[in-house]
Structure formats: structure tokens, C-alpha cells
Design brief:
Elements (H helix, E strand, L loop, with lengths): L2 H5 L3 H24 L6 H22 L6 H12 L5
Helix pairs in contact: 2-3
């Protein structure tokens, strides 16, 4: 996933994608221990995707990057409701 594509996602979507990547990376690592992988380069791709996702989440935490439009709409709706969904 490219950084621009990740920045277009909302924070919840980025966190969900990070969870999916972590699970897939864990499963591939276990499979690698048991037998040969069909695509060993997938591990590298997943590690790099994980780093990109974590970097963008950290940038958001520091206020370096901007939220996507869908995330802004979500935040404005939740603040109008007093933080309740």
C-alpha cells in the first residue's frame, strides 16, 4: 500500500488494516517455520506495509499529516453528538 492511499483512509481504517497485516505476518511467520512458503517476498512486503501504517498513525498522533475527508466528517459528527456515536 502506498503512503498516499493510507493517508486517504480514516484512522479506524488504518488501525484495522494494521491489525490485518499483523495477523497475516504472524501466520506467514508460523507457516515459514513449518514448511517452505510459496511467496517468501510477501513477508518483506507485509513488514514494510506495517511500518508505513505505524508511521502514518504516529504522524497523525503528532499532528504532522492531515486526516482524510471521511475522517474529518466522522470527527465532526462525533463532536456534534457530544462524542457519542
Amino acid at each position: 500500500m502506498k503512503p498516499g492511499q493510507i493517508r486517504d483512509l480514516s484512522i479506524e481504517e488504518v488501525e484495522h488494516r494494521l491489525h490485518e497485516v499483523d495477523e497475516e505476518l504472524f501466520n506467514l511467520t508460523l507457516r515459514r517455520r513449518v514448511h517452505k512458503l510459496d511467496n517468501p517476498l510477501r513477508l518483506r512486503t507485509l513488514r514494510r506495509d506495517r511500518a508505513r501504517l505505524k508511521t502514518i498513525l504516529y504522524e497523525h498522533k503528532l499532528g504532522i499529516n492531515k486526516l482524510s475527508a471521511s475522517a474529518k466528517l466522522f470527527e465532526s459528527a462525533s463532536t456534534e453528538n457530544g462524542g457519542k456515536e
